[in-house]
Each structure stands twice: as C-alpha cells, then as structure tokens.
Amino acid sequence: MTERAYVALGSNLGDRAAHLDRARVAMTLLPATRLAAASSVEETPPLGAMAQPPYLNQMVALDTSLAPETLLAALHAIERAQGRRRGERWGARTIDLDLVRYGERHVRTTSLTLPHPGLAGRDFWRRELAELARVLGDAA
User: Is-catalytic flag, 108?
Assistant: First the structure.
C-alpha cells in the first residue's frame, strides 16, 4: 500500500541548489517510491542563534510504500552520500532531509516523531505544504 510522505529539504553550504537537486533525484531512485510533487524553493534564515549562511528550502511529496523508519534511514543515507556530517544541532549543512509527515500516521519512537515536532514553528514548512496541497489537490 502506498502512502504520501512529505520531506523537507534544506541546504546552506556549497552549491545549495545543486544539493537540493541531487537529493530530489536520489529520492526518485528509492524503491517503491515516486516523487509526486515539489514545492517552490525559498531562501530562509537559519534556525537557532549560530552565525551561518541562509538556507534554501523546499518540500517534496513522495508516494511510497516504504515504512516510515525505512524511509527515514534512506533519507539519512542520501544525506551522508552528499557529505552531510551530523554535528552540532542547528549547525550548517550541505543537505538536511526531514521526514515531516507520513500519511495521517502519528509515530513516536527514539529516532522518529511524526508529524515532525518542528512543523508548528516553521512557517516556511507550512507554506510549502500548502503549496503542495494546492498542486496535488489534497490536504497536505
């Protein structure tokens, strides 16, 4: 069974647009997964108090039959392949892929919380989800 998952992409190091492009392509290569739509790309200031460059952000809708934890692991593998090194929270990064929503599921494990706990505080995520809802004709 396929469900719709929403993934937030962000980059603030190097060629930010190229990092987003490569991540989108990599997601299309995941098994049992199809890219349904992508929001516009927008530039936003970094979260947190650390001095760093602005981010390019985008949200994509994936139709997938991968389980949420499996999809999250695949997203982390894409990050690693693009040079992401996890360090300090809110630090600069080549690519950040956050699983924001997965269908109507509510998940709370040690590695995954759905919907993403940052959703309420990130206006740009809500704008991007609303754009995808208009494009896809559903209630993102």
Answer: no
104 in Cβ contact with 34 (< 8 Å): no
What CATH number is given for 3-136 in this structure? 3.30.70.560
Catalytic: 93?
A: yes
Encode pLDDT of 44-100 as tens digits: 988 876 778 999 999 999 999 999 999 999 999 999 999 877 766 666 788 999 999
Query: Does 21 qualify as catalytic in the annotation?
Result: no
Catalytic residue among 4, 16, 84, 122: 84
Distances in Å between the Cα of 132 and the Cα atoms of 4, 121, 126, 137 are 11, 18, 10, 8
Residue 63 designated active-site: no
Q: Would you kindly state where each structural domain of the chain is located, as residue ranges?
A: 3-136
